[in-house]
Please model this.
Amino acid sequence: MKVLIAGATGALGRQIVPRLINAGHDVAGTTRTPGKERQLREAGVTPFVVDGLDHDGVLSAVQAFEPDAIMHQLTALSSMDMRHFERDFAPTNRLRTEGTDHLLAAGKATGVRRFVAQSFAGWPYARIGSMVKTEEDPLDPEPIGPMRPTVEAIRHLEAAVTGADWTEGIVLRYGGLYGPGTTLDSGSEMLEMIRKRMFPIIGGGAGVWSFVHVEDAADATVSALTRGSRGIYNVVDDEPAAVREWLPVIARQLGGRAPFRIPRWLGQLMAGEAIATMSVEGRGASNARAKAELGWQPRHASWRDHLVQREALAA
Model:
């Protein structure tokens, strides 16, 4: 199968590429950075240097390669300051709206049969009812101010992809990614904050988070090329966990002391409204549908065993 990955040099794209090539697919990939063109070519990928917000550039790349399937992995989250959530997510929101529309238009023009797109599981879910959500549960109808544009962008992507009647549109809601190249990679800023007691438990820490190793996310994405049907799948590990549960475990594994506990109002002042809301009201996600319909099983079943890399600790 001919597969084009939009965002092939991102943390997840770099994991997807070798899996597709090893499976015998003919792979093309886009990158915004000219210096990464050689990286793609050496990996066996047909490279296209194109900005996902450039309609004509996207159309030209898709028409040149004529893929059977498109994988939409475009994001712009190389760094993240949760105190400025709306500002830092704005570029990715454009890729989830305008970028999605450009890829879908190009795919329709060239007869793409399968369209697999990245979304997110966890805090976008409604902050009522069950603490662990399925794909049938609604997204937050009233997100807090800083999160509203991102939830709206996710809604747009998911509706556009699953509503495209000319292709098989599949949306994968990944959990919080950890592992190589992610914001939770060994030595990352976030893990260092946890180790140094700079990531407190806010307001009791009842909010539930779901994680997934980047390798497992890539495996699920490749499975979605040939398995599953039009719709949405949560791609998360087997153990959704409240912040008050996972944060002390990770701090201990990193060799740090137990995190501070602070009231919500103080957490909101220190860390911002977004992280305070996720810490107190966030919802995790169930992976039952992805397991059943994608034939997928996370090899890293729990953040508890794999989020902190043992080799890093040994060093």
